[in-house]
């Protein structure tokens, strides 16, 4: 497995296994099979409600802790965010059965971002999180966090796939010392990704599937990817992307597929912000934005 080196020197596998939308009752088996297939980066979140199942799979695997890279994420916290963030991190560690996290991410760029980040800096300094980072931060929010705090986020996990490539965002992150990580790398098959003529043709040239072509494209761009599957044969297929290389022409042809727009949710959309506020507060119509059309956000969260 290839690694990337984060800005603080921590090594992170460039390809891992994500568990978003895997039901808790299926997660332990899925993670066990992923570990057996060779994955060593595991990505979960408090919001996914399957940290305990991930922890059971880790415990039963027999794999030394030092050989694993475990990421979980902090959901948006109410004030006092600094205290709540520590409690949330301790709860995640307990569910995972771990003494430390390899990477702790702020899941959304909302709420008391500074209070949450200061608490995460404390966790990092204490060794409870070897690296800390963010998810779903667009460039303006990311730069604001970088220039106004002591610790720069090591990672920004964002929607990245052939139809939303985030090339300029990646360039900015590189300048800031932030590693880009993809969620939704296979676009959940949207826009007929798995039957796309170009991607299929490239796959035929290498004897690979479309999924392998896309994951190789991400890896070749130095984008960390975390594909998800509950099928062992797909897990094995998805990790088998280190025995071929896309040509410059193939990379350029895939670059032409970029639409420049999200296929899932726009974090600049007021409806999304209002909906995530309700997710945090666990209440409806009391955030002062109840008049925003569609602010129930049904079906909008894909990470």
Protein topology:
Blueprint: E1 3-5, E2 11-13, E3 17-18, H1 24-37, E4 41-43, H2 51-61, E5 69-74, H3 81-96, E6 103-106, H4 113-125, E7 132-135, H5 139-147, E8 155-159, H6 167-176, E9 179-183, H7 197-206, H8 210-220, E10 224-225, H9 232-239, H10 248-255, H11 270-281
Parallel strand pairs: 3-4, 4-5, 5-6, 6-7, 7-8, 8-9, 9-10
Antiparallel strand pairs: 1-2
Helix pairs in contact: 1-2, 1-9, 2-3, 3-4, 7-8
Explain how this protein is built.
The chain starts with a strand and ends in a 22-residue tail after the last helix. It folds into two domains: 3-253, NADP-dependent oxidoreductase domain (TIM Barrel), CATH 3.20.20; 265-303, no CATH class. 40% of the residues lie in helices and 12% in strands. The longest helix has 16 residues, at 81-96. The protein has helices at 24-37, 51-61, 81-96, 113-125, 139-147, 167-176, 197-206, 210-220, 232-239, 248-255, 270-281, and strands spanning 3-5, 11-13, 17-18, 41-43, 69-74, 103-106, 132-135, 155-159, 179-183, 224-225. Helix 5 links the parallel strand 7 (132-135) and strand 8. With 303 residues, the chain is an alpha/beta fold. Residues 282-287 and 291-300 have low confidence and may be disordered. The record marks 73 as: Lowers pKa of active site Tyr. It holds the Pfam family Aldo_ket_red. This is Aldo/keto reductase. Substrate binds at residue 107.
